[in-house]
Design a protein that fits this description.
Helices cover 70% and strands 0% of the residues. By secondary structure, the protein is mainly α. α2 packs antiparallel against α5 (94-101). It is elongated and about 45 Å long. The termini are far apart.
Length: 114
C-alpha cells in the first residue's frame, strides 16, 4: 500500500515543528539548569538523552511516519495542529521543565542499573 503525502502544512506541523520543538526544548531545559545551578544533574542528563534518542529515531525513520494512522488518514485539522503545536511541546517536555528547578541526583548505580 502506497501512502501519498497529505499536505505540506500537515508535514510541517507534525514532522518539523512538533518533533523539533520537543528536541530543542529538552536541550534548552538542560542549558537552563546549568545556568541556574552551575551544573547539570544526572537526572536531567538522562531525561534529555532519552528524549533526544526518541526524536532522533523518529527523524531516522521519517519515511515510515507516512504509514502511521494519524498521518495517513487524518487531515491537518484541529486535532493534529493542536496536538503538535501545544501538547507535544508543553506536556512531553514537562519533566525537563520540572527538573530545571528541582534537580535530582540519581547516582551512577541508578543510571546504569540493568
Amino acid at each position: 500500500m502506497q501512502v501519498k503525502r497529505r499536505s505540506s502544512a500537515q508535514s510541517w506541523i507534525y514532522l518539523r515543528f512538533g518533533m523539533m520543538s520537543w528536541a530543542v526544548l529538552a536541550v534548552t531545559y538542560c542549558i537552563k539548569q546549568y545556568e541556574t545551578n552551575g551544573k547539570v544533574a544526572d537526572s536531567m542528563l538522562v531525561n534529555t538523552v532519552l528524549m533526544l534518542v526518541y526524536v532522533t529515531k523518529f527523524f531516522w525513520w521519517e519515511a515510515g511516519c507516512w504509514n502511521t494512522m494519524d498521518i495517513a488518514h487524518d487531515r491537518a485539522g484541529f486535532y493534529i495542529c493542536w496536538g503538535c503545536l501545544v501538547w507535544v511541546p508543553s506536556i512531553y517536555t514537562s519533566p525537563g521543565m520540572y527538573l530545571v528547578n528541582h534537580p535530582v541526583n540519581l547516582g551512577p548505580h541508578v543510571i546504569f542499573y540493568k
